Amino acid sequence: MSLKPPIEPIQHAVVDIFSVNDGKLSIEQQIEVYVNDLFNVQDNKSISLEEVLEGLRYVMDFRIKNGGQPSLDKSLMKRLSEGLFLNMGHTEGHLLKKKTTAAADMAFFLFGDFLEEVSEFRAVVSELDVSDLRRQLKIHYRCQPNSSTKEQKRGAIAMVLLLTRFFPNQFGDWHDLIKESEQGDMERLMKSSLFTEVSDEEKSKMPRPPEVLGVALLPPPQALYFDRSVDKLLGMFSKTDRERGLSEEVIPALREHYGSNDLPAPPRPNPLKMIWEQLTDFMVLILIAAAIVQAAEKEFNSMIVLLVVVVLNTIIGFSQEWKASKTLNALMNLSVPQAVVIRDGQQKYIESGDLVPGDLVVLEEGEAVPADIRLIEVSQLGVVEGILTGESVPAQKNIHAIKSKTRKIPIGDCKGNVFMSTTIARGRAKGIVVRTGLQTEIGKISTAIQSSSKRKVKTPIQRKLSKLGIYLVILAILLCALVVVIGVIWKKDAREMVNIGLSLAVSVIPEGLVAVTTVTMALGVRRMAANQCIVRTLPAVESLGSVTVICSDKTGTLTEGKMGTSELWTTDNSLYRFTDSTSMNPNDGQIIREHGELRKRMIHVRHTANASINDQQEINYEAMRPKPIDTEYPEDYTKQLYSAFMISNLCNNSAIRQDEETGEYKSIGDPTEIALIVASQKGGLGRDYWSKNLGFKKVYEQAFDSERKLMSSVYYAENGNHLLDADKMIFACKGAPEELLRKCSHYMKKDIVSIMDDAMEMTDDFATQVYDENVRMASQGLRVLGLAYKIIPSDSVPSGGQTKAVEEEEEESSSNRNPNLVESGMIFVGLVGLIDPPKQGVKEAVATCQRAGIDVMMITGDHVETATAIATQLGIFKGDVPGMSRAILGRELDLLSDDAIIELDPFPSVFARVSPDNKLSIVRALQQRGELVAMTGDGVNDAPAIKRADVGVAMGQAGTEITKQAADIVLVNDNFTSIVDAVKEGRHVFDNILKFIVYLLSCNGAEIFLMLICTIANIEVPLTVMMILWANIIADIPPAMALGVEPNEKDLMDRHPRDPKMGVITKLTWLIIFVNSMLIAILALASYVFNLYALKLPIQLSRSMTFTTLTTLQLVHSFNARSVHLSLFKTGITGNRWMVGAFFASFGLMILGIYTPGISNWLELVSVGWECWVITIVAVILLIIFVEAEKFIIRKVTADKTN
Q1: The pTM is what?
Q2: What is the pLDDT of residues 153-167, one digit of tens each?
Q3: Burial code of 556-587, b = ≥16 C-beta within 10 A, e = fewer?
Q4: C-alpha closest to that of 1198 among 986, 1051, 1079
Q5: Per-residue model confidence (pLDDT) at position 804
Q6: 813 - beta bridge partners?
Q7: Distant-in-sequence, close-in-space partners of 850: CB < 8 Å, separation ≥ 6
Q8: How far apart are alpha carbons 318 and 320 in whole angstroms?
Q9: Of 1031, 1037, 977, nearest to 1008 (Cα)?
């Protein structure tokens, strides 16, 4: 194995040619960034005022003070003074002891320093009116005898001295600078020893920061410093030597200043607090109240049942929350245990928690990054940042400075930085730690998750059921009071009326509501598990059915999450399309050729170049029809296709192996190179063909880097082969088309016989044709690579080439390199377009969502061109449809306040190059717009947004542990189509919850109206307390449970989402409940009155007959309740076997209570005769007729509204 070359520093992109001028511009650029932050800090939650002021303090102390830069842009100084004024008046404390905040003092001291050091700043201050200056500076807050600190008093004295010294004509009298009522405090201060001490100092009168490292220079604030060149960065971290790193002596002081490089331990969950929260849930309190009422009625059996329901509900809720409490614990897995650091010139391993900003860290392939680092030396560095960006392709890194007018750029654009917990995919580097602990990107995500975990947000169904419960309790109290009052007015026994009132109150409160809701959602969880969805929190099942917006990550959710070759264009103008391109099985998929002659005649193919088409000759279009190529005989391929596969394999360091035991294919290497190998294997020209069949051996390589944007390899065959003579070598190259084409002098002609034949000389027309194809591929979101080669003599590589290290060229200067090894004079072969393709079925799933009234938005860290291309293919982005034609970048979101994001119109459907903060802002904005948001993701960067969303959805395969723990739902197969199935199941669950609520309230309402009407009419009450309770037990819970497993209605995904602001029961639903309740009550009342007054039956028999009729009506009504609007004759009776079983079970219990001696006496019932059953059957028929008429009206009204 060859030795790795030493890390060589790459030439800086930013060079200080004119140090003075460049220094001034650099300082002004830094100050401008901080000034923008001073004005936006209130709206930008990702930065703090202290952080901004620390940055300005560092610029002052390190770049300006002591004459470092005495002159700066005046307009910038004017904005700086306004920004400091804006933030130096913040106060804290009560009215009698009001004092300025630490951040306000920092702004005040900075104002004094700029006043002292920069002439243009003084010019700006000189233009101010003294009253305005007095009002803005608020010096009186800083000279209070008791509440002001020594630093504040020192600052007040220094400010007065500076203003009177620099502006004797305007501000010569210090009394003008301080409120009249506070001037006495200043007078006393000016007579103190502190005044003498400050006035004796010639320079730096303002308070100084505490000394660190034994000097008065403040260490650099924690920031990415992507805009600093390496030399400037090393100048800022003056204690860091480029070769020796930090000295161990300064580490303790730096750690005390910056803190440790640790993520905070998550708070331990309190089980007792969790149980208490479960027991104090409003619906549970209702159940406890109902149990107390039952106990008051001495119905201890019912009380026990209710308390069992309370206990079960508490256990289920507690177990769900206990699992969720592990979210923060998963963060600890993200900490990198050890780091390789250089201190005192010694390279050694240390605990990553001991790192401090300024440490010099060495990064090697395969290692995790221990902190946020600014790179100073790199060698072919590629970093997998998927944990933060969601993108699986390694990001190429360099050391160049990036000039920007904002302190924030997308993580994917920070080419000079690497971030904590990302992984080095290839190459090596050295860098300086610039952020540690909570200041890192991972640390900020940790903070966001911790803050969101402190806010318990109820799900929609929890909020709605709580609201419904409040209404029902109020109604129960009113009815109870009403019945008692009316009974007393009619001179009934007050105690009996109180008992009846209490029984009615129990009827109003649906005892089974919480139990049935929990069971229904639990059954939904089981059904969703069968659809590859694991539900972590029960209420999320229903919430998912309510969502109005799904925010989906692109990579791995909407797309397959791995690169595949989509198209290959060759110089004979043939286009090859690859199907099933991401499957590593060479037998999967086809290669379909689109003939060059046919493409010339396609009107949709762009023709910028002059293409001569001979229309005189007869064209055989059938022969040119696109069709799969025969991969059995690769030697019969066109030389262009054959050569393209050759370059794809030779200029490639990845490999694919098949596991002998499992038969699975496994890949090693860069995803882009793997895609090229897969494409070649599908064409029958895999790595083995070139290395074993043709005997090619690599002797030289120039690795890809972000400067050249090319990679090249040199191969030879020892004994030659049919492609290459023994005295020749092949130089294969791939890379960015625009760079590669400039290095090519020729291109493969159409009728070439061998790769060693002469090629066509490059022309402008051909270059334009290549440009057209490149643009066409790029517009489809493809990543385009060019392919080229040249034949070189075998002596181009020194003797012993067989064992020559492929990286040895790193040590050679370009002047000593053989000219044959220079990437120039090559023969262009073609273009290959790669893409992370959409998953199968996702386009249809997106269309289903849109039909269901759910907006689908793509949120990705990828480039906007790729994102919009994929979104267009999936139907998420439609340029010609208002409201679906807007894409926005993360850096554009950074410039907007939360209110501005909320007001975006149209709201974007594609968000590209976004940061974790952007994702959180998007979710918050959508929620503020009244949307119910489902957020999907897999990386740690998605966790805060997933936690914040109404429904968080994590990927089961690609998702990190913390993301899964933060989510409500985990998709086992990482497929967007599973989300759509889950939405359907969520709507199904809510439908069933609504059905049994309507059923329960209709049945209980019927009992209430029946008793109320009789009480008002001074008729003997038709039911005793025992009868009411028995009817509630047998007619409420079994049918309601059966409604919980009702099959979903066919039009479920053709409906629009429910309005999130709408209650669980709408006005229409209340009307249906009222009508059905009155209908059942009137039929039961008619039976009671007929029995009591027409048939002159005894009161006890009449009550038993009324009980029979009422209970039977309620049980039959359970079949009506299977749909709010569909006819019973359409839904049928046997469609829900559980309902049939529940009906016969409840009906059997009713019969048992009526006819079984002992039980009937206990229930105060007597046996009923055939007359009762005739009356009951008539009542049932009338009920069905009236309900069918009611549903017909509902269908007609709903259809009219839709039309």
Answers
A1: 0.64
A2: 888 888 888 888 888
A3: bbbbbbbbbbbbbbbbbbbbbbbeebbbbebe
A4: 1051
A5: 38
A6: none
A7: 856, 875
A8: 5
A9: 1031
